[in-house]
Amino acid sequence: MMSMSGKFKLWVIHALLGLECIHAAEPHHDATDSGDTGAQKMKRVIEEEHEIGFIQTLLVHPTPISVQQSDYQTIEVYESDHFGKVFLLDEALQLTERDAPHYNEMLAHVPMMEYLAVQQPDEGGTINALVIGGGDGYVTSELLKYPNVVIDHVDLDKEVINVSKEHFEWSSAWEDERVNLIVGDGAAFVREQVEKKKKYHVIVQDASDPFWYDENGEKIILPSHVLYDMKHFDGIYALLEDSNGVFMFQAETYNIPSNLEEIQTWKKSLEEIGFDGVRYGSIAIPTYSTGQIGFFVAHVSNKDMVCKSDGGVCTMDLSAGLIDWTVVSSQFEKITGTTKYYHPRIHRSAFDLPFWVEEAIYDSKE
Q: Name one GO cellular component term (predicted).
């Protein structure tokens, strides 16, 4: 979750009053039902994907747990019966407690496991990680499950961080001495670190949508677009260790045509820059648009590198997306019982896409 703007398009809050809707921009806190049942009114968090004629709704209790206005956005926390706490930025759903592990565990453990599958650090050796966005702190908390990791975490909105600290248990990650929290612009931070010749082993970018389409079919460019352009990806590439570095970022759902076009573009951009093993993976998550969100994982590596496994050595061919799963399984044993969604089998199967999606991403001639 990146706090520049909503991760998904045009989420709005309404009060559930039969067929009547009340927009949340005008707060409505009447929590009593006018019917005979005594049931509590609920509000709807509604997403409309105009491009595909899609609407998705989540019911929350009408009175927010927290409402804060930062310099950048409105920050709200609601409670739902099934999904627990619901986190919104500018009325855009960022996460729910119930299915937040789906997205955040994959963003953290996929790149870490792939880094370790190529090169296991020496005993006590440091793994330098950078998290861009993710102001709720969940990705950072998952990365801290690896004892050798040291994290720079940069997010734009201090108030998002403060609200997360108050309402989400995983935000205690920022209290860990291995975390250096920077409040600032992620794209600018990358440029600054490139100038300083800083190097990281793993970079995770948990950014909001770079664009969306309105009801008139007009493409609206959002602030986080700067985190998806060629110049920024060039900077990421420069920050990663030459011998073994992994980049992971949120890459939209393939179920929306304009998103799929961007997925194709991002893959080509990453490969043109020089990344190896560029692969699109899929995450099942019910409260995100169409129930699916994707990610890209990409490597900077020496393709001739050998990797250790339980049975000896193996040659890594990241250009073919091959990973030493023996190492992944052995590393996972160290954190078994601490994840709700991630495990090695779901890591591996995340790249098995519907045939029409594979053709669009990997067989595109454009």
A: cytosol
